[in-house]
Amino acid sequence: MAVLSDDGRRTAEAILARYPAGRQRSAVLPLLYLLQSVEGRLTQEGLREVGELLGIRTAEVEAVASFYSMLRLRPTGTHVVSVCTNLSCALRGANEVFEAAHEAAGVEHGEETSPDGAFTVHPEECLGACDAAPVVQIDFANHDRVTPERIVELVRALRAGEVPPPSRGRAPKDFRDASRILAGVEEPA
Amino acid sequence: MSAAPTTRIVTVNWDDPSVVGIDGYLAAGGYEGLRAALAMTPTEVIDLVKTSGLRGRGGAGFPTGVKWSFVPQDTGKPTYVVANFDESEPGTFNNREIIEREPHRFLEGMAIAAYAVQSHLAFVYCRGEFLWPGEILDSAIREAYAKDVFGGSVLGSGFELEVVLHRGAGAYICGEETALLSSLEGYRGQPRLRPPFPAVEGLYASPTLINNVETLATVPSILTQGPEWFAKIGTEKSPGTKIFSVSGKVERPGNYELPLGTPLRTLLEEHAGGVLGGRRLKAWTPGGSSTPLLTEEHLDVGLDFESITAAGSLLGTGAIIVMDETDCIVEAARRLVQFYAHESCGKCTPCREGTWWVSRVLGRIEQGYGRSEDLPLLDELGENILFKAFCALADGAVSPIQSSLKYFRDEYVAHIEERRCPFTGVGPGAQTPTGSDEDGSGGVDEAGLTEVLT
Question: Which of B105, B49, B71, B61 is nearest to B223 (CA)?
Fold first, then answer.
């Protein structure tokens, strides 16, 4: 069964139309975000549909998708928690925040996604917000100056179905919602 | 202690929350620089930017007007402008704040650049992780279309400019301009051979101008206030101001716009509140993690391209990461090299394999399992990565390795001789009570150790 609905196909056409005629391949990243917003990750079927839309092989689409860390080819939690552990954040205690996030989300040692599928937790490279170290992104929304205690609260809130307000801007509901915003098909807030 | 008076160009309106929208920006005199540019010929605009001496703020410091003049005209192909908003250099966060606070200043600079090189289609390559800044930019672009700043006739001039927001998907290498173009064309973000330079054969093999967000955001004021005004600020060879992103062990981390040539001491003590907790400065990066570390002895070196180069480092993006006397330099170097190992695109063997090996060697030294031959080994690995790969990512990876060995070799030796990290106490040579040795392991996490040694 197709991943994209008829409505989804029309959205994909609108994405393709952003780029100059004959340069539709440029739409590969937003199209992958669109598929990711439907499936919560990328699957072979999703990659195949993107290839079809662009007139390129599934393998070429996968070659692109596997290069970028925000495109997820593996099972992924409802929420993605990214803890910056690069130097500026590490100097301000990020490693303890990461450990606390990992434990609070119930992710097993050496894994990144919790067995209940609620969370993917991973150490992140510099998020460009070092003035607010340690920085955590939940579904790509920034939380500033996060302590180990604070990350436990945030994870608890997410588990209770809340969407904790980020330090600036609006928070996506979950990883799928964030992927939809990244596809550029939503009106900006 | 009150902050010293400063010249602010790009951040001048940052205290005014209304300038995030186009009405507030117009009320503050916004888009007057674009209006002035449209009344000139494109060549006059390029000459004016050349006269100002503005240099690219994305890291390389190349003269902006000269870069604009490299874009050929009448090639029979479209000309593109690509704004590089893929800000990912560790420690750097000024582009993000420019967009969060005053996106139109950047869009205005981009429109001026497009007019100067006669491009009718501009792309903004926005870092994927910048979800919220991307939404602000999306709104700002829509506002600009609604006010006829973009579209079929820019401010009624008859000049056409379309603007497309394009989001990346998580890859540091896409900040490198040729990798960015590969990514924008729909491929893996791997760098390309230069020449041909993007000015001649860039996006879709067509003439392309690529500029950083801060560079473009600096341009409108040069148009309104004149190149002579700009050239008088800063130093002779590094004119103007720079937004320095200060992070790590300081009292007040943040973005501070100061004239180029301002010494770190002024930035640190008068603006950023000094080293956290009044501790002693140990090491700092002048331009992000890719630039060699400097130390306390360089406190009075001016933060401009020439002075920092003369001191043995690079101004880069002006991202200052501060480490204090309680921070372990081996661990800092290890963490930075791990970043490059993660972000290496895999194209070149010295970078792909070298960064991985160096991070392993640094890891074992930090864990107290270093060997006497590890220091010459690190020297050799550094030599075999530096200038041996296709793009500057590999050279950036060598910066923390070589500079930490240069200034803090004793600290490496102490790790190896004492068989522990002198700061955390972790390692087989741990002495209680420094390391927790309740289980007799010397404070070593066995799982972590396997990772380090295998």
Answer: B49
